[in-house]
Amino acid sequence: MRKILVATDYSQGALSALRYAIAMAKDYSASMEIVHAYESPVFYTADMPLSAIEESEQIAQLNAESGMKECLENVKFEMSGIIYGTKVVKGLAGDVIADTAKQFNADLIVTSTTSAGRLEKMLIGSTTTSIINKAPCKVLVVPPDINYQKFKKAVFATDLDESHIKEVIQAESLLNPMQTELDFLFIDNTIHGDTESNDEVISHLVKNNVEYRNRSAFVSTDSDIETGIKNFIKETKADLAIMVSERLKFPAMLFHRSISKKMAEHPGVPLLILHPSK
Fold first, then answer.
1. For the stretch 156-189, what's the b/e string if a residue is b when 16 or more beta carbons lie within 10 angstroms of its beta carbon?
2. Is 177 within the bounds of a domain?
3. Which domain holds residue 7?
4. Are strands 138-142 and 271-274 parallel, antiparallel or unpaired?
């Protein structure tokens, strides 16, 4: 892993995620690109003077650029020794981050959890979800106030989809340098689940599809999958969660909220989102 893109909205959560990314960059000898997306501050009408529109746009750009300077001032001593660049771009965050990640050839996007109103989540999802859906590479969602530490144990939550389990190869650039212990986890949320059979299935899938050596496979039962994953992470003291997320397109995203998207809102530990290979 050589290139990390950090998405920031200048919030305290984003500042925490930036500090997390800085510490990661030092551990992995990676360069960084810090990106902020901003939108037009007002809705324009046909009768609005052009001068007023231009002034409003200029103020929005200046505020966004000022925010980046303040952001860097907060971490200037921590950035010592890191090769980095910054970018302030007008546009929707998901689109801007995805485009910049492609240009930067990023190996990883780091973002924080972001809030969104109930209606916004129903219609388009949070900014974090938008970034996950459009990202061209893996995404690390960092909860607020989490300090970086080397990954000792990671939990890969799976629904026993063989093609998804194979995607763990995308995470090896993060896991190998730290010799991270990797637990594959299946949550059985059925009333009369066959735990023994599920144990055999997940053990077989991991054995035949994963070359990563320091690995184990587990089955846990819980009526709620999200709760089951979080409980397992807490019990095993894992410091990284890993999930595979399908990219959803409109209108499917209006009616489907995957477990990975729900986990991204309140992950508890940093959550690494992988996308299925094309």
1. bbbeeeeebbbbbebbeebbeebebbbbbbbbbe
2. yes
3. 3-142
4. antiparallel
**Rounded distance, CA 18 to CA 12, Å?**
10
- Tell me the average pLDDT of the chain: 87
Confirm whether 239 is domain-assigned: yes
51 occurs within a structural domain = yes
Reduced to 3 DSSP states, what percent helix, strand and coil does the chain have, rounded to the nearest 5? Answer: 45, 20, 35
Three-state secondary-structure class, residue 46: coil
- Both 95 and 192 in a single domain? no
The answer to the question of residue 148 being in a domain is no
Same-domain status, 96 and 198: no
Find the distance separating the first CA and the last CA of the chain, reported in whole Å: 20
Q: How many domains does the chain have?
A: 2
- Do residues 273 and 138 touch, judged by C-beta distance below 8 A? yes
Tell how strand 215-221 and strand 181-188 pair up: parallel
Task: Output the pLDDT for position 47.
Answer: 67
- For 47-96, the pLDDT digits (tens) are 667 666 677 788 889 999 999 999 999 999 999 999 999 999 999 999 99
What residue ranges of the chain have pLDDT lower than 70? 41-48, 50-53, 114-125, 191-195, 247-258, 261, 264-267
